[in-house]
Amino acid sequence: MQATKLSTKIKPIHRIPVIIISGFLGSGKTTLLNGLLSHAPKSAVIINEFGATGIDQHLLRQHKVPLSTLVGGCLCCQVRGSLTPLLKNLRMAWDANNNYFERVIIETSGIANPESVLDILLKDRWLSARYSVQSAITTVSAIMDVQHFERFPEVAAQIAWADSVVLTQTDLADAFQQQSIQAKLDQLAPAAMHLMAVQGDIDVDVILNTGKKIRPLLKDKLPLLAAHAFNTISVPLPVAMSWQQLHTALSYLTTYYSEQLVRLKGLVYTPECPQPLLIQGVAGRLYLPTRLAQRVSDDGVGRLVVIYTGDIANFAEIILAQCAITRS
Fold first, then answer.
1. Predicted local distance difference test score (pLDDT) of residue 59
2. Residue 213 lies in a domain
3. Taking Cα atoms as reference points, which of 199, 166, 277, 200 lies closest to residue 31?
4. Which of 21, 124, 143, 268 has the lowest tally of Cβ within 10 angstroms?
């Protein structure tokens, strides 16, 4: 009797695509992420914020997606060790819950080098068997000072590692500014796909269908970055201020500390509006606030996160004192 040959086929493991969104402070990463989620709601999201208090997730409240936050440092250094177990837990939840999301989108902090995230996804054997890097996207503000390319090496690193570069805030830039930034992008990422967002709008389908092929092994594009020179503080604002008072105080801070204050964002409450207001400022520029939907869990305490360079003694006290002056 002839022995029957048993044929066993091992079902290939499905690899979940990952989109990495990087970009310097205030370049529009969360705005881009909002647009992606509107077109691709079946996504799991990981947000990394340099400050100890997370703010960006409040802009994603309307999207009912699995959302994880990593705060208090960058994925490329302080909280790098937290990403691997988080991705493993997400994958195990995906296996146990009937594939309830189709992709993972990682938004890094504004000063993170995406190389470290790529390194984790491509070199960890367990993760690389279960995740694939679909695209590494970097947002670049058209109104960014071109001196930032020299002053902050993180900017160049974020662009150099991208396979897609999105030029944002073009409606706020003149032709010379756009040409200056575009020249830098052509120099740092000549092979990347260059896209332009107009008043926050972009062809999301192009991004979602970019980078389908497997990414090559990492190569030495740039030297390792030295430890960054950024500091961050989180300042509670327990007393409600009118928007005019708050705007006056923040305008003073962004003007007086324009060289050191790189990024300002916060969630604040004003007597004029029951809903919390999201405020944002970048390098001396203060934007109009965004009104968010009120939630039962809101405690009514405003929070201001400031990212700055150099050593500013008692900066938190200075901020609170300036708010007190405008309130009196």
1. 66
2. no
3. 200
4. 124
Element (H, E) at 208: helix 204-208
Task: State the Cα–Cα distance between residues 85 and 43, nearest whole angstrom.
Answer: 18
Closest CA to 20 of 95, 88, 87: 87
d(CA 232, CA 50): 8
Same domain? For 189 and 292 the reply is: no
Strands (E), the chain: 16-23, 43-49, 67-71, 103-107, 131-141, 164-168, 193-196, 230-237, 261-270, 273-282, 285-286, 290-291, 302-309
Q: What is the CATH number of the domain that holds 196?
A: 3.40.50.300
Residue identified by tokens 């890097």 is 133
Angle at 21 between CA 16 and CA 22, to 5 degrees: 140
Taking residues 138-148, what's their average pLDDT? 90
pTM to 2 decimal places: 0.82
Structure tokens at 165: 């570069």
Q: Is residue 90 part of a domain?
A: yes
CA distance 287 to 117: 30
SS3 110: coil
Tokens of 246: 């708050």
What value, to the nearest 5°, has the Cα angle with vertex 83 and ends 311 and 131?
A: 140
Please check whether residues 305 and 266 belong to one and the same domain.
yes
Distance from C-alpha of 169 to C-alpha of 305, rounded to nearest angstrom: 22
The tokens for 82 are 């937290």
Half-sphere exposure of 26 (CA within 13 A, CB side): 24
Q: pLDDT tens-digit profile of 3-46? A: 555 555 666 789 999 999 999 988 989 889 888 888 888 999 99
Q: What is the spatial distance between Cα 26 and Cα 7, in angstroms, rounded to a whole number? A: 56
Q: Is the dihedral of CA 153, 154, 155, 161 positive or negative?
A: positive
